[in-house]
Amino acid sequence: MTQDDMKKAVAAAALEEIRGQIHADSVIGIGTGSTANHFIDQLAALKGKFRATVASSEASAERLRGHGIEVIDLNDVKELPFYIDGADEANLQLALVKGGGAALTREKIVAACAKEFICIADESKAVETLGKFPIPVEVIPMARNYVMRKLEKLGGRPVYREGVITDNGNIILDVHGLNITDPKAMEIEMNSIVGVVTNGIFACRSADLLLLASPTGVRRLSVINTPSQKGEYY
Ligand SMILES: O=C[C@H](O)[C@H](O)[C@H](O)COP(=O)(O)O
Question: What topology does CATH give the domain 3-127+205-222?
Answer without folding.
Answer: Rossmann fold (3.40.50)
